[in-house]
Design goal:
alpha/beta; six-stranded parallel sheet; 35% helix; Rossmann fold; 326 residues; five-stranded parallel sheet; 2 domains
């Protein structure tokens, strides 16, 4: 790093998924605290490209479309896109390229980068094979929250000591508030998640919604698929004054969450986005252990429940009270 001691050029690779990408944001804040002149680019799956852009210190976002390319591997358009991606990557000169994902896929994507390719060693990476593709590897203890593992890897690669708590450092996108967004206090209820066993039962959502309505807090229930829309409409029909919004993109979702009085969500990426925006957020866990990938702990976040131990409505209301949110 001798020739760019105070302003290293860095490529970060964390491509998916929503929660994982968010858990990489504190790395940016760490880097600029130690190297204020750092130039930081981020390689990310196209569907999540809006997230790194929420951090003012990210210079360029380099989108990849592995999910789409995989489905259309024999189309000429796919190979043109892959060629354009490789050209974009090889045109950049980096001092460091750091893969915090630790997957064979992410290591492979980073191979074309000009710069010292760094990642976790084979005892630390999620897929040990990935370690064979880095030029320099580092040990990062497992059994820690993803935020801490990302921070420790990048601190070792760039040679600084971690100090202070994680700072996500993101700000809301500059888009107008939609007409349907309530003027008064509202809570976002994130009822949707990728697996059926991670859902919280609908009767509990309805009971929670009624309790919030009694405190003059409206409920907004966003959705992302037809099945989720159907659930959102079922729940809003049973919760007084509740709102089922139109389908939101990531910037619109960030605006909804960032302006909320509080957010209550199952194990889903948007709950991590709310926590990263420093909104009081309660995570509801029914099928996963929140210790390693739950909401990153802070005075305004709380994880409730565990595998086979969903929290009840009273526990959620108590958590909101404890955060001063109701």
């Amino acid at each position: 790093m001798a020739h760019h001691a105070d302003s290293p050029r860095i490529l970060l690779v964390k491509t998916t998924s929503l929660g994982d990408v968010l858990h990489n944001l504190p790395v940016i804040s760490d880097i600029v605290r130690h190297y204020p002149g750092a130039q930081i680019d981020w390689m990310v799956e196209e569907g999540f490209a809006a997230l790194p852009r929420l951090h003012p210190a990210v210079r360029n976002v380099i989108p990849v479309a592995v999910r789409r390319w995989r489905k259309q591997l024999f189309s000429a358009k796919t190979w043109r896109e892959i060629g354009a991606f490789r050209k974009t990557l090889s045109a950049q000169q980096y001092d460091f390229a750091i893969d915090t994902q630790g997957l064979f896929k992410s290591a492979l994507l980073m191979r074309g980068a000009n710069g010292l390719r760094c990642g976790m060693d084979k005892t630390s990476a999620r897929e040990p094979l990935a370690a064979s593709m880095y030029q320099r590897t580092f040990t990062v203890a497992k059994g820690q929250h993803a935020v801490e593992r990302n921070r420790q890897l990048v601190a070792q690669a760039l040679g600084y000591a971690l100090d202070g708590p994680a700072e996500f450092g993101i700000r809301l996108p500059l888009i107008p508030s939609p007409d349907w967004l309530p003027q008064g206090n509202y809570v976002a209820l994130l009822h949707a998640t990728s697996r059926a066993d991670k859902l919280w039962d609908e009767a509990s959502w309805v009971a929670l919604g009624h309790a919030l309505h009694e405190k003059n807090i409206r409920c907004v229930l966003p959705w992302g698929s037809e099945a989720e829309k159907a659930r959102s409409l079922r729940l809003t029909a049973q919760i007084p004054d509740a709102i089922s919004p139109p389908r939101l993109n990531l910037d619109q979702a960030a605006t909804l969450l960032g302006k909320a009085h509080a957010v209550i969500g199952v194990d889903t990426g948007l709950a991590h986005l709310a926590a990263a925006l420093n909104v009081p957020t309660a995570g509801i866990y029914t099928a996963t252990d929140p210790t390693l990938t739950g909401l990153y702990r802070g005075p305004r976040t709380i994880n409730l429940g565990n595998i086979g131990q969903p929290p009840n409505v009273a526990a959620v209301l108590g958590a909101l009270r404890g955060m001063g949110a109701c």
